[in-house]
Amino acid sequence: MAKVILGVGSSHSPTLLMEPPAWLARAGQDDVHIHALHDFEGARVSYEELLAKASPAILKEIEMDVLWKRHEANQKAVAEIRTILGEAKPDVILVIGDDHKEVFQDDNMPALSVYWGETLPYKPQGMMKWKYDQDLRATDWYPQEEREYPVASKLARSLIESLMQRDFDVAHSRHYQPEQGMSHSFGYVYYKMIEGDPIPIVPVSINTYYPPNQITPARAYNLGGAIREIIESWPANLRVAVIATGGLSHFVVDEDFDRRFLDIMATGTLEDHASLPREKLQSGNSEFRCWSALAGAVQGMKMDLIDYVPCYRSPAGTGCAMAFAVWH
Predict the structure, then answer these.
(1) What is the pTM for the complete model shown?
(2) Which domain CATH number covers 237?
């Protein structure tokens, strides 16, 4: 019988691909409303409103020596996850991620979708790209060659059928449009987590970002629980890792909320996830839902928090908080 032998939660921010001077350059976009900014109560605010309420102590958070220490902590945590995943030697990885209109658009935005084609395409030109001056080390998100990655297609189809039997309404895809490639959630796993030959994955996409059909945290948790049950019903003797990527708080760093959420991830119940204030789960914070799905899939397993790294980039407190954890 198949078994979930490892759970992994990781942020997937472009910040992980950049050095600190580029973080500060990216902060220059925050005051032109590139990203939706929400305050600590979840209200939509402008950069100017956020700056007016920000603590002067944040200035210390964006000093260059602090940024470099956090950059080093991020890279160390990613390397540790890569090592743990490599040592676990899973036969299959089920990845739970979200899409930023790389694949799904307003003409069709499913709350839940599973891809079950034989391979999953990576197309750099289809991914979101962040350009900076050459001296700030311009990077694409994620700078890989165009190629096809293996999908555990039969298992993905089995997952779809089994979720339907459990009253989850699942959209599905067997291929993308010619110009489309995988979402950044899955590109991150291939680029930063897997060493050596690609491991077949089962790609599960949930809509975290876009109203009105964002999956609720409770539904995400129950989805994760159903995924765990389905994996353990597979007849093959497979070692399966479940990975969720995204978050934590962004594009306004909220350390208190992040730490409370990590406590819930470690010991919380369905009721704890259901009680998360949805008004705070907007914009980048919406990706907490991917972690809630992971929590359902790793019930009864022990969480080890590798690191939590709040990466501020402006005096207004904008940035992205990184978290890295595993479950055994």
Answers:
(1) 0.94
(2) 3.40.830.10
